[in-house]
Amino acid sequence: MEKQRIFAKTWVLVLLGFMTGVFVGCSVRQIEFNRFPSKSALARNVRLSFAYDKRYTGSSPDTERVWDELLPVDFGFIKHSTLSPDPSAVAAFHQLHCLNGIRLHLDGKHSKRAASAHEDVSPAHMRHCIDYLRQSIMCAADSNLEPVNEELGGVTGWGSERTCRDFDALVGWTRKHRSA
User: Residue 42 domain-assigned?
Assistant: First the structure.
């Protein structure tokens, strides 16, 4: 009789432990889905093949225009009642802002566009951007394999097929929640 009682208590404890684990797991998952738009509203992926796009590498007015078009109004700053009641920046747009700043700095456009705080190309800001992009790249840790280009003796990344987050969906979500 005592063995049956111990056996029953053990199973009740195992069952309660399992149910608690399921509850906690679902709660944590719900918090995770609510906190990051990339895991809820922006779960769509698209297949892309990387290719060189010279529009983003020159220093012409057209190059400036295409870079400006990458960033939504307000440079990707949003307010969201549950995710971010205080203004916050969507990381992808901060990353693009940094990359564009480095591009401007390399092109020697320090004075032309530095009037805007969003286009600060000072050496201190560029050092921030380099380290921020380093950490962002390491965080994403893209493990796709890129074939060696025999002529170059290295890789370009072009022709490499990827599954990417839907950037247009991110832009749309950001516009919907802009901090204006």
Answer: no
The closest of 95, 90, 94 to 79, measured between CA atoms, is: 90
CA distance readout (Å), 172 to 37, 121, 165: 12, 28, 13
In a domain, 29, yes or no: no
Q: In angstroms, rounded to a whole number, what is the distance separating the alpha carbons of residues 113 and 130?
A: 19
Domain containing residue 99: 54-111+121-177
**Whether the predicted pLDDT of 32 surpasses 50:** no
Residue 20 pLDDT exceeds 50? no
How many structural domains is the chain composed of?
1
Helices assigned H by DSSP within 91-166: 91-106, 110-113, 123-140
Label the pairing between strands 161-165 and 45-49.
antiparallel
Does residue 151 fall inside a structural domain?
yes
For residues 102 and 95, give the distance between their C-alpha atoms in angstroms, rounded to a whole number: 11
Element of type H or E holding 117: none
C-alpha dihedral, 47 to 88 to 127 to 58, nearest 10°: 50
What are the distances in angstroms from CA 86 to CA 59, 155, 170? 36, 42, 19
∠ CA 112-114-120, nearest 5°, is 145
pLDDT at 56 (0 to 100): 94
Residue 29 scores a pLDDT above 60:
no
Asked if residue 99 belongs to a domain, the reply is yes
